[in-house]
Structure formats: structure tokens, C-alpha cells
Amino acid sequence: MTNPLFKIRDLSCRYSEAGNTVLEIPKLDIPAGKVVFIVGVSGVGKSTILETLGMMNNTLADNTNLVFEYQSPKQKNPRALRSLWERKDDEAISNFRSREFSFIFQDTNLMKNFSAWENIYLPALLRGRTLGQARDKAKNIIKAIFKEDLDESKMIYHLSGGQRQRLSFARAMVSEFSVLFCDEPTGNLDRFNSVRLFEVLKNHILEEQKSAIVVSHDLELSAKFADILIHIRKIKKTGGGAEESDSISGLIDGESVYFNNGQHWDVGGQKLNASEFQEYLVKLLNKDNNLN
């Protein structure tokens, strides 16, 4: 049996040793080669799971039963990410992220002193590609993402907000990643360009045998493009004593994960098309929002 991309058991996420638990994941396997969307209401840990899986922040609560493994397609055996944090070696963690992951954020973080094209192919140069190889790959991705021509000499400050967002997609896709993490990546785009970008991204993931994990509030895109959807459920915990207040956290369990077989979504024995599944998600999130 093939190892999952991420294997998680008994994970609790918090931002300090004495802090409240933000997110709990008793058991979760994320397979490779899929586009995975993560949805949930505000405050349930959507950013937390991205930070945790992407090794951007150590949110792991101390737990002897914790399993947090990553199976790189470049390696034969899974890697225990918990032990990578325990080494307290920032350079090793940074090198690991750079080798395996790529990121797209709503804040594009583009380099303003470089041209649009240089922003796209510089990551490939940093990974050892020749200038010719980097430019060729950049050219193909630019052609797919930009319906208009993108002048090679155009600087970042000449681009609109939507163009910059699309440019951040192109930059991330040129990188030699195994997993692409996206945090609200289409927040600055109109519907046409949002759909276009995810069509390009999904084809790229399929053709290159990569994986993508996307945090999004856009339920229409989620229902249309996800292979797997994870709904972070909102959980209210009642304080155990007079000095303990109620708290809200997120939970990912067996009821949180939904699968798309390419034709429909499987939901409790029902087969829902994308539009029906979107309506179902709206009801789930409305229920979460009403939990105070």
C-alpha cells in the first residue's frame, strides 16, 4: 500500500505550551497527487493547518502518541516531521521547505525591484536550473496563465493587483515543488480569472504528478476543482471550572473529509454534483457560524 503524502495521528495544534488548543486532528491521511481544498469558518484553524503541514510554524503540542509524517516522492521512506522540529535547526527546516514545498499567499510577496519575468524564473535559477531552462518553463506557464502578452521588461509596479496575483501563481508553479500550498490565492481576482487559474493549476498538478493543498473561502471553486475537501468543524469546549472559560477550536475527523470521484461528491451515501455539494457546504458553514 502506498504511503500517504501526509500521515497524521493524535495531533493537537497550539501556539504556546500553555495556550488553548486551536486545532485537533485525531486521524488524517492526505494522499499524493490530489488537489485538496480546506474550508471552514473564521477561527477554526485554516491558517494553522497550512502553517503546520507547510512547516512554517511549529504548532505541535507535546504528545507521545503523535504521528506527523511526510512522504516525499523523491524519497523511499516517509519522514517524521516532528523530529525535524525537535532538532531546532532552522536551516535544516528552511532547506526542507525549499526542496519540497512552494507557496501562494493572498499577499503576493513579489520582488518589486525585479521584472515580472525575473520574479517568475528566479526560483528555478535558485534550484539549479540554467537560465534557458528557467525561461522556457516560465514561458509555458505564463502562456497558460496570462491571456494577454506579458512584456518581459515590465516591472512589478506596472502590474495591476490581479496581474500580480496571477504572477504569484506562475512563480510558485515554476518552482520544483512536490506540494503547493495556497492560502486564499484568488482573493484579489474576478470569477473568470479565478476559474482560469485553477484550471491551469489542476492540469499542472495532474501532468507533473504534484500535489496541492488550498485554503479557501470560495465554496464554488472548492466544489468544482477539489479532489478532496476537508471541512474543519467548529467545536465548542465548555470550561471545566469557575476559572475556565468556554473555548472554540477546530476539528478534523472522519466526518470532515469528502471525496470527489471525478463525476460527483460522495456525501453520506448521496451522490452530489458540484452545485449540490456547494449548497451542502453552505449549510455546514452556516451551522458552524451559529455555534457560539
Give a structural overview.
The chain is globular. The chain has one domain: Rossmann fold (3-Layer(aba) Sandwich), CATH 3.40.50.300. Strands 6-7-8-3-9-12-13-14 form an eight-stranded mixed beta sheet, sandwiched between helices. A six-stranded mixed beta sheet has the order 5-4-1-2-11-10. The protein has nine helices and 14 strands.
Principal-axes shape call: globular
CATH class: Alpha Beta
What Rg do the Cα atoms give? Answer: 20 Å
Q: So, the CATH homologous superfamily?
A: P-loop containing nucleotide triphosphate hydrolases
Largest sheet: 8 strands, mixed
Indicate the CATH architecture: 3-Layer(aba) Sandwich
Average of per-residue pLDDT values: 89
At the fold tier of CATH, the topology name is: Rossmann fold
User: How big a fraction of the residues is strand?
Assistant: 15-25%
The tally of strands reads: 14
Count of separate structural domains: 1
Number of helices: 9
| Helical content (DSSP H or I, runs of 4+) | 25-40%
Low-confidence stretches: none
Spatial ordering of strands, largest sheet: 6-7-8-3-9-12-13-14
Give the N-terminus to C-terminus distance in angstroms: 42 Å
Order of helices and strands: EEEHEEHHEHHHEHEHEEEEEEH
